[in-house]
Amino acid sequence: MTEATESGEQSRMGGRRAQRLRRERLSSYWFTAGGYFAIALFVCIVLTLLYQSLPLLSEFSLAQLVTSSNWDPAQNEFGFLAAIVGTIYVTILTMLMGTPLAILTAIYIAEYAEGRTKTLVSSFIDVLAAIPSVIFGLVALMVVVPFVGNYLAPAVGSNATGTGILTVSLVLAIVITPFMISLTVESLEALPDELRETSLGVGATKWETIQSVLLRAAGPGIFSAVLLGFGRVFGATIVPAMLIGGQTHIPDSLFSTGQTLPTLIVNDFGELMSMPTTQSALIFAGLMLVIIVWLFNFAAMLARRRLKRRWQY
Amino acid sequence: MTTHTAIRTENLTVTYTGKREVTALDGVSIEFTENKLTAIIGPSGCGKSTLLKSLNRLHEIQSNTEISGEVYFGDERVYNTDEPLPEIRRHVGYVPQTPTALPLSIYNNVAYGLKIHGNYSKAELDERVETYLRKVNLWDEVKDRLDEPGAELSTGQIQRLSLARSLAVEPMVLLCDEVTSALDPISAERVEQTLAALKEEYTIIMVTHSMSQAQRLADDVVFLYLGELVEANDVQSFFENPRDERTKQFVSGQESVAAADTEDNTTESEQSETPPASVQ
């Protein structure tokens, strides 16, 4: 090899290295920018909502707003209590029904189902997760509403029409489970087989293994799945709007009609432009939603960190 | 001296029927002697782990396995039996290759099997946990942190914790799948010492890829090649007078790489992580 070709080789290599380093630097700028953009976006949203809520907040105190259940924009009455209670009812009921269903189904898919059955069941779960929730709402109007109104409510001595808190929760539970199932299945399937072998190897049954080992080891992941489900229920709009009955009063039974914070916003959306205080009130409802979800996620992150340490494997 | 057979296989054939059919074990008949340490050796993917796991039917957690033949634990059948599987596995324990801590405290990692199988008082549990942690030389290292997660121990400690967990349910046979291969040399030596002490009381069947480890620890050696049992003999005869040509080659071939043991370990452990795929 002559010296000339050697140095030529070197300069070509040098050029390529410089290019690679440049690309490395640029990509890291991009990723950093992406990260900060997410934070900035969140701050922007909260600030906008806060700013737009100020007209309402200057007229009424926070305590007044969240303790009054009298919602009548025409009379300048803005009590959020009914919508807040409605949201809490729907969320709790939905999670109570949806979470066990999701976890049990996920255990079946991840640990029991085999071969074709497994493929079939999990592909249908994925399809369910992909169906727009408005479709669930439509089908529920034709199936769940008459079922609740004609059979379930009379059975417990209620004369409800079928739309209301329980109906919304039943349908929302179905809307969110496919999604929680997929995430839970993923967490379970990501566990190393050694955990199963270790537990079975000391003579545990399959169910004991699932209960005391797998559900713990996958616990942080399952916790996240439930939490994302919670977030979706909390902010669910179209299904409650179609099925809750849209009356702003504090629900007195499971069959009662009601209102949630998101339905309050969509139902009165038409009046937004005409009445400034109403606009501000609806935006304030949005602000409450964002802040509660944020606080909840933050608490959940802390809880998850503890779980992760406690249940590490 | 009379010897008893702790566990034996009879014409055991295991086939993985996945996308391509693979016979991992082909008509293996073999006896494992009570209170001895038997090393199963052979090249990667020749059915060592499959043989080990088929002794307590742990390979069945993989779908698509077919098995014929029989395993006898004492006089009892392991396959084709009404005896519930957990009972069999309680008597024939298993320690995996990867050091595995259950997502429980150090204490509960050891007490796990005890809590499943018996109604022990807190005092009895305490006593047994201590006994078995001492047996694997781990007690002094963990006695002040029993409530901490097991996974926070070092890998070497976790492997001894695994042994303690298996021993706590008082198995008669202990299956060890390359239990030192994921460990650094010092931890590996400690686990070896533990095993050497344990073989007085238990029948230990150990998969290893390390000739020198087999020579150091084993009483008997079993050589598998491509799912076939090539040779089984006591350790001295096996290494000094191998009968089969393939054994001779394998033993002499390995001897030159025995010094590079740890390097060998990593490749082996990576390869054997996915049993069906690596079986050729």
Structure overview:
The complex is a heterodimer of chains A (313) and B (280). Chain A is 78% helix and 1% strand. Chain A has 313 residues and is mostly helical. In chain A, a hairpin with a 4-residue loop joins β1 and β2. Chain A starts with a helix and ends with a helix. In chain B, the strands form two sheets. A six-stranded mixed sheet of chain B has the order 6-7-8-3-9-10, sandwiched between helices. Chain B has a four-stranded antiparallel sheet with strand order 2-1-4-5, with helices on one face. In chain B, α3 (106-117) packs across α4. Mean pLDDT of chain B is 84; it is low at 255-280. Chain A binds chain B through residues 114-115, 192-205, 208, 212-213, 216-217, 219, 309-313, and chain B through 53, 56, 58, 61-63, 86-87, 89-90, 93-98, 100-104, 112-113, 116-117, 149-152, 162, 165-166, 168-169, 175.
Name its key features.
heterodimer, A: 313 residues, MetI-like fold, two-stranded antiparallel sheet, 2 strands, globular, B: 280 residues, alpha/beta, Rossmann fold, four-stranded antiparallel beta sheet, 12 helices
Written as H for each helix and E for each strand, in order along the chain, the element string of chain A is HHEEHHHHHHHHHHH
Q: Uncertain runs of chain A with pLDDT below 50, 5 residues or more?
A: none
Order of helices and strands of chain B: EEEHEEHEHHHHEHEHEEHHHH
Radius of gyration of chain A: 26 Å
Helix fraction of chain A by DSSP (H/I, runs of at least 4): over 70%
CATH top level of chain B?
Answer: Alpha Beta
Number of strands of chain A: 2
Most strands sheet of chain A: 2 strands, antiparallel
Number of helices of chain B: 12
> What is the arithmetic mean of pLDDT of chain A?
90
Please give the order of strands in the largest beta sheet of chain B.
Answer: 6-7-8-3-9-10
CATH topology of chain B: Rossmann fold
Large-scale geometry of chain A: globular
Helix content of chain B: 40-55%
